[in-house]
Structures are given as C-alpha cells and as structure tokens.
Design brief:
The chain has 283 residues and is α/β, with parallel strands linked by helices. The protein contains ten helices and twelve strands. This is Lipase.
Length: 283
Amino acid sequence: SSHFSTDFTQWLDKHHGVGLRQSIERADLNLAGSFGGRQYATEKLTRNPVVFVHGVSNVAGGMMIEAATHYRNRGYTWAEMYATTYDNPGGDNMKWMKYTMKCEHVRKVRFLIEAVHQYTGRPVDVVAFSMGVPISRKAILGGQCVDNNSDLGHRLTGIMGTYVGVSGPNKGVAPVMMGIPYALCAMSPMIPVCNPVDGLFSGFCPFKSRFLDDINRHHHYEGQRVYSIGSTMDEVVGHNICMEVTTRINGQNGEKIYKDQKHDATFKTSYDIQIAMLSGKAF
C-alpha cells in the first residue's frame, strides 16, 4: 500500500481542501510519497494510529514502508499507519548536507499528526527516525519556528499517545568513526545541515543550534509515554555529544541502547522493540 487510501484522501479533501492534502500526499514522488488510511469508511481501528516520520534524504516509501510492512505482520492495519514525505531528496546523494529542519517540514508533519487524530478519533503514536526525531518533536511542541518566527500553534501533547524516537540527533551530531566520535558540526558550521539556526550545530560545548535548544528546553511533551532507541556505534548521529547521549529525550520513560548497530540498522533491527514500546509491553 502506498499513497493515502481513497477514504483518507476524500476525508482530507472534504475537511482541509485539496491543496493541503496534496502537500502531504506527495504524488510527485509517485508511490513513495505517502501511505495510510482506512480501506472503507466504517473500518474500525483497534490500536492508536502510528505516524512514521522518515529521516534525512528519505521518503515515506523507503524505510518507513518497510517498517509498516513489519508492523502489518504483527497485526497493524493500513488504517493504523501513516506517513508523509516532508522534503524531496530527488536522488542527490549529497542532499543530506543541504537539509535543514525548516518550518515547512515541521508544518507538514504537524498537519499529518493533527489530521490523523481528527480522522481516527484516537490519540496518535509517533515513530520517528534520525532527523525525523527533532522535526516531529518540534511539530508536537508547537510555538514559534526558529527559522522564520511563524507560529505553529499550541502543543499537541493532549492528542498524543506514545512517542518513540529512533537514532535521533536530539543533542546534535558526533558520528562515531572507527570507534571515535567526531564533532562534525563544530568543524563545519557552514554546511546547511549543521547551521546554528535550524540545523544540528553542536560539539562546540555547550553551544547548540537554536532549533535544538528550543526542543530540549521543555520535558516530556512528546506523548503520554516517551521512549528512545540508539546505538553507541552510530556512524551518522553518534552517541555522546558534550557529555550527553544524543538519542536520549529529556524526561523520557525508557530507552534501548544497542552496543554495535550502525545508524539505519538501529531502526531496522528494533521494529519489535518499537511495537513493544507502543503497546506498553516490556522491551
């Protein structure tokens, strides 16, 4: 399944208009742009719907559809799983360096979370990966965007269920190469992804980007329960930065830390742990 279901598409058009629906459906990416929605209007959900938030240089139809397929094998339905693509990587391998956590990306994720809540009438769970973690945390936090001062609105905590952040650069990035952390953004603040406003600037302790300061100033707003998953050997975001574990979320209820997984593998090997976290089971 990819692209929103006909039922969800019609619901979005009716309640929010074609333009907003198109902005999160991302038909320009063909089948990779989005997924989710009831197969028929009276279909019942037995779980909270999950909004998956992809990482840098990715699309809904990449790692997130792989995750959703695994969730499906564990009993989830397409009416309980949703994703949009908040940027367009367009096959550029260096595109990740040009990414920033722009307000428009945050708005798309926020709109999907709110729409899924309205559409299903249930609290929304979020499973976010990599840069999708700080982006979705800001989407839930609301308030002013750091890059353009536009106001997102109130916190969404009241409509959230469980939040799971996987391999998130919450405190910045210090990729672990050959076992040694490397303060990438302290050395190259001119790379857009590292910029000190809406980027991942970090490593010049204790200074961080305005975006990271903003999402870390408040505790436990991401959901009723908040969990994180990380690895000590993450070659993309790293593990420790300025004596803080970057994948950890302030005020979280629990975490899983792998000793040996790389960045993408931390997500791909933790599906069953994510599901346990979402369902309140031991992990």
